[in-house]
Design brief:
This protein has 323 residues and is mostly beta strands. 8% of the residues lie in helices and 47% in strands.
Amino acid sequence: MQILLLLILCFSTQVWSQAKVVGFHSNREIIVEILNNDVYPSDERVLFISQFEKKIVGFGKIVSKDMTVVPVMAMVRIDELVDHQNILNGDYVFPLDKKYIDEFQVPGFLSLTMSSDRHLPSKYKELPYYGVFTSDGHALDKHELLVGLVQLQYGLTNNLTIKTANALTIDGYANIGVKYQVIRNQHAKLSFNSLGALNVKQRDWIFQGGGTLTLPTNSKYQTHFIFNLIFDPQNLKGSNTEDFNLFKDSEIRNIYEYITDSWNRILLGPTYNFTLQTVGGTLSYMWVWDSFHMSLGVGTRDFTELRFGTDGYYPQFDLFWRI
């Protein structure tokens, strides 16, 4: 009877997990036995689930597989351990997929947003921008589309995104921009962006250039250093962009991002305005669903202007779909 129960337990574990930890190659590399190779392609990111508590203990990436043996054996690099937990022999290994993120109620981790996994909803990906129009983020994935109040973006590749500013288009400016991500890893992310706009009737042109450097602190926090340079040969007061309060000033932003357990974001940080030579800042909360994002907050270009309005403290609202 004991042997029969043991066989049933082993069989049910294999059917349920399809892969499990069977050994350790080093303190950062784990040997995993894969029962269904089709579910675990090379370079797949995976979740480690505790065999006892059925919750996430870490995540990693498949770096190599031995196809000459049955079952297939894989070497998995540990990217991060959750709450300093340990991965044990017999722990389950699942693909990084929405089904298992939901099933095991995986809380928000910025470390999980660093890959360009097309099969994951945008909820689990890096933000394309940070709730403020002049805080452009990193590139979309290939063939992804972003539709928002102020921008349209499309991913030509995993590193190259083209974009246009809706506000400028409505204001009579033909415009197009690009965003290129040059670094994307667990230590840093770096992107550069530019946008050119021309209003033939007003004989006014605008050029914006900038970049974003992201430095993760831990699995819940990361810091974004953002700079925007605005070049406009015409008098700003004669430009229609005044109506939208856009493309007015060159600035540096420092935005701190915190990801909640429900994958929403808190975004805050100071801004230095080169044109006005003032220090301001922003504070916003972004709700994130599978594809829809909405943010609400407050901003100012000068902390000392204690009043409401475009020259003091003003509300910030944005929404977009990433599909």
